[in-house]
Amino acid sequence: MHEQAAALLELVRHCAMPDGEIACRGTWIRQQGEIRLAPSRPWLPFEAEEWFEKRDVDFRWRAWVAMAPFVKARVVDSFDHGRGSLAVSLFGLVPIVRSQGAETDKGEALRGLAELPWHPFAFRPTPSLRWEAAAGDKLRGTYDDGKTQVTSEFEIDRDGRVLGGTALRPRLVGKTAVETTWSGIFGLYRNFGKLSIPTVAEATWQLPEGPLTYLRVWVTELRVL
User: Fold this and answer.
1) Does the structure show a pLDDT above 70 at 54?
2) What is the Cα–Cα distance from 173 to 195, expressed in whole angstroms?
3) Which of 101, 134, 183, 217 could form a disulfide with 201 if both were Cys (CB 3.0 to 4.6 A apart)?
């Protein structure tokens, strides 16, 4: 690994863990947020919990989305041991969406990679994660488990805070997965014990007709597991 990439990784980890490495098996966070499916669609509020493994990019996100008054959908999004999954069910009982397969693996692996600031222990080289320095002060991470390979670039400030990231991610257009530029921003870093993480995030699709910010998240609680 190039010296510049190693220095950026160390800067990010030191910013997140100024007192040194924390012995753990991952993190858990509680979130509030809102999501929409198109520019003309309303923002739908949700509450969620998310679990991250210390290793690589594995995560599990479970949310309850208020679709209408007295109507909620449960969304479970995950990447676990190389497999991605998305399941949406009405009231947690009636299946609406179920997605698995190679494109889902890729999309979920990218989400896990992009959300490393919420489990910053994973900002290090592993058998499945390699790091390079990109233009400016950007850090490029590539996850490759031999089956799924994804890459994201992270923008790092001079103090080691991750400000955002960009990647090409599969987006479903009809029944076809289209590689689309996908970006996110992080902000409002806060200390939870000995760990500092961003508590505000947004995700945006860069569509031909213009950017679509479709997700806004506020972290309200964190536990080191």
Assistant:
1) yes
2) 39
3) 217
Report, as an integer, the average pLDDT of 112-125: 95
Residue 213 has pLDDT above 90, yes or no: yes
End-to-end alpha-carbon separation of the chain, Å? 29
Cβ count within 10 A of residue 13: 18
pLDDT at 55 (0 to 100): 78
Range of the domain at 193: 3-17+24-37+44-220
Among residues 77, 11, 69, the alpha carbon closest in space to that of 48 is found at 77
Q: How many domains does the chain have?
A: 1
Nearest-5° Cα angle at 24, 21 to 27: 105
The two three-digit tokens of residue 113, written as one number:
């990679």
Token duo for residue 90: 């009405």
For residues 174 and 19, the model is more confident at 19
Query: pTM to 2 decimals?
Result: 0.95
